[in-house]
Structure formats: C-alpha cells, structure tokens
C-alpha cells in the first residue's frame, strides 16, 4: 500500500502543537499525526494524587472533642476545622486526610446520628471544594485500643453507609479501627502472632470491603497483615477466607513511618503466626503489590518524627517512592522530613529539571501522564467514523489507581459531543511508555457541520463529578489544557462536514438494467430500509413482539421478567422500542437464555443512561459469572462505560468466565446505591 505524506499546520496554539504529518490509514480517510510539547517542570494539581493536608472533617463539638476549641486535645489548631480547605488549596493539594474520632463511642451499640450527619455534611464540603478525602476511623488517639469486635463491625456498617452515599469524593480508606491512631498496633486484635486475632482482623477488613463500593481502595498499615489478608499461608477464619479477587485487588499499603529507619519504625520487622519473613522479603511484597489485572494499588502514608533512613541528597526518598509506586503522602507531618526535602537541591536528571526534592516529589507522586504524539482522522462526516491512536508516557511513580473514563470530544464552542472510548482504561498507564492502540468511534449523525476542537477528556468516573474540570486529568504538555472545559486539546481544526456526492453510501449498488421488453413497466419497488437488521442471536429487543412484560417471554420464547423498578408496576416500561428501567438502589431483571451459545463470542447490550456512568449501579450475571457491569473486561482491556447516547457494549463471554455451553439466565441487580434510569434497546449474542 502506498502512503501519501503532506504537511499540515495547526490553527490552535501554534507554539504548543508542532508540525503535523498526514498519512493514509488503510481503509479509512487520511489521518494526521501530531507531536506535543512536553512539560517536565510544572507541578500539576491533578486529582487523586499528591501531597495531602490534614483536617478534622467532623466539626460538631458535641460528637468530636477535636472541635471543641482544643481545650481537651494537645496540638489542636482551629485551621483543622476549616471546611473551605484554604491551606490545602494554597499548597496546590487536591487531597485532604481526616480521622474519625470514635473514642467516646467505643462502647455504643450504634454511633450517634449527629456524628453520621456531620460526616455527611463534611463530605459535601469536600465535594463543594473540588477535593477528595483519605479517611481513617480510630477509637484511640494515643494509648491502648480495647473496642470489641462486635462493636467495631456494627460501626463499620454505619460509617460504610455514609461513605457509600459519598463515594464520589472518597479517594481511599485507611483500614483504621484497630489500635492506637487506627494503625493496627497497641490494642486488641493487633498481635500478629495470635491466630484468633487474625480471624478478627480478616472479618474487619471483609466488613469494610462489603459495606463500601468497589470504587474505593483500602490501605493497610503493615505488610505482614496485608499478606495475612490477601495471601495467607493457611486460613484461620472459622467461616472461611472468602474475599473475592476483586476485593483483594482493592487493598494497598499506607506506611505511616516512611523513611524513619531501615525498618520504618516497625513497619517491616513484624513477623507472625504465618512464619518468619525477612525485612527484605516484606519490602519486596510491597514493591510487587498490584492488582490481578496489573494495575497499581494505592500506596501512601506519612513520615514519622524521625529521619533515620532519609538523606540530605534526596536519593532514598526518590528510590523508595518509585519502587513502591507512591500516590500520596502527608505534607503536614513530620516537618523533620518535609523541611529537609524543601532544603535539598536536586540536579537535573533525565527528564527531571533541577529543583528541590520537595518539588520533585510533588510533581511525581502518583501519575504524571504526558502525550508524546497522537494520530487521528483529518476530517469526518456526520455519522462517520473517527479514528484515534497515541503514544504517551507516564513520568510519575504510579498509574491512576481508581477507575476513570476516557472520551474524545468535538467542541466548536456552541456544540459539544463527547464520544466514549470504552476500550481505554487509564489505570493501565503505569510508569513508563505506552502505545494507545487505534480507537474508532462513530460521530453522531446529527452533528452540526463545521470546524471543531478535538480533545482527549479523562473525567472522573462518578457522574456527579464528571462535569467539573478540577476532577479531570490534565496531561503534562504545554498549551493543550483547557482549564474551563477540563480537557486536553489534540487539535483545533478538525473538519466535520456534510457528505458530498462522492461520499460513501450504505445504499446497495444498482443492478444491471434489464433488456427492453414490450411488457408493461413494473410497479415501483419499495425504497430500501433500522437501519440494518439486528445481528446475531437476539434475546430481547423490546419491539412489541412478544409484548413486554405481559407475555413474560423474550424473543427466544423464554421466560423474562423484572421487579422493584419505579415504573410499569415494577417491571419497567417500554418506550420507543427500548426497555426503560428507573431504579433507586433496588431492582432486578431476568431473562432466560436456555440455548447453547458456544458458536457466539460476544454478549452485546445496546444501552444508554439518563446521566451516564450507570455501569457502576448494577451487576450482570450470565453463565455462572456475575460482576458489576463496570468490571467486565472488553477487548483491549477496557471496561464498559454507559453514556447518554446508545452504544453497543460488546462483552467477550469466554474472557469473562461466562459458560456459553450452559448460559442459564441473564440477570441484572440494581442494589449498589445508584439512582438513575437505563434504557436497553437490545440484548443479543454475536
């Protein structure tokens, strides 16, 4: 195939985007490749990473002694109660850390409603400020913690309900509850050699994971306890070790004495009933910690009031943070370390400029995504296909830890079209370089022709935060960030134009004309037609035959039904040939399959949501596999992302553990705290 090259110059921010080349992409319209100017020096206040600042999120003195003016607690500072988080914002931080003090309630069967309400309002304040929280409950600030397992488990459930309702602004949880400061030492259930206590520790972690959504990671204090939970040498829990792999994947590490000495003040030198392990082994466990899909887990913490393993040259802090894939750390404690980092001047090295150790840490904590080059279509027709691929680098110490959506955006200042890239999962962009494979999206057929800005948008996964630019990822490039829109500009001059007579058409080619005949001319044939007919084996397309739900049959003639939805007697309603399911933390849908699917590869759900992001609100079960819809893996490693426009979400069945030989029933459950409406146009197998 011959390739034609022609030069192009961007009309947008010429200083930021370099000269472009256009190449013909096989089978599609010409595409252009652009390179982008790196920004290696700016400290970018990206979400879900960086230094954190400590605050008291509970500001009601009736339920928090820390909020009573400081009379009964040493080291109190009224600034800790500032719900505008001015200090954190001045420092450029996007994370705050807060303890939940439960000292006065350790013997209570139920936590006071005033405490739970105040926690809820505090989380509202975090949302209003455009920040997220790292959260830790504790029964003792300094001393022996003797809260009982029964009370702890009860309180976890109550707190978990509030956190679930505000999961959009919870960065991650620190396990807490056990021991002084909630650090799993100096208290009941904190003896690593006690197997009975190991069972309690397991149940505490299990309860936290079960009462909070899977979008919230959980960090634990000691490597030996992390191994005890995720990879024990044997199970000592009488009811069995039943954590799922998805729950284990949520578990990371918070080192609360980072760099205090070689053992980090006991962090690495504890051993247990499981046996004896060297300090080096336990460090390596944490260096190697990642999810089963190869993503980085949460790693954070703070330093101690000691710097025995720190160094004035700033070498150890960089090496350890890189090996641990550090995402966040406390800026407020301890000054013996943070002051040293601010005073340490580092020479330029590789892509890192000359700067203080503090600034280098501030830049590289967590992810630092940089676009190297991108290829995308020269132009596109309404209803046509737009292609995109890229090369990028992560110059930070970790990949994004939390699930995040990706979109291409077409924006002409009046009209904006957000085109989802469901196959992309930014969590896969761990430190190093990455080639983003070609993505193809369909431009809406009703798009207004004109010249558009093309952008890459990486918003928060939560629909409640998606429209807020402070929660979107800014790439480390010069001249590409639109702070008002929260997206990264790829080009400022993409043409979306109406079809000309030479445009491709879906109409069939004309047949050869028949020879002239004396017979009368035939009657005109009907014009050719949803749209092509549905592909594959249709389970439900809700077109009125059979009638849903009165016939209680799907298109295969099998049983179907639903309940607990807010319309249609609980079964949902059909409108415009689609099933609309309006739910509020309740609802189930079931449709028997009952046929062999071994000749089919994909489960295809054609779906849209009222707000977008509804993939986190329900699970889907088929052929022995049941997962949150967002957790199914698509071709290319991405995950489903429901938008406000219909799209075909194609789930490879074998890769997701679905038994195609015996698929049984396709079922969906909506008990995950969500409140929205999804419209299902069709469910089929291809």
TrEMBL record:
Keywords: Signal
Domain DUF4874 positions: 46-223
Residue ranges occupied by any DUF4832 domain in the UniProt entry: 250-477
Annotated Pfam families: DUF4832, DUF4874
Stretch forming the signal peptide: 1-24
Coiled-coil features, chain-numbered ranges: none
Pro residues compositional bias, start-end: 507-535
InterPro entries per UniProt: DUF4832, DUF4874
Domain of life: Bacteria
Record has Signal as a keyword: yes
Annotated stretches, region: Disordered: 501-540
Keyword Signal: yes
Name the record gives this protein: DUF4832 domain-containing protein
Native species: Acrocarpospora macrocephala
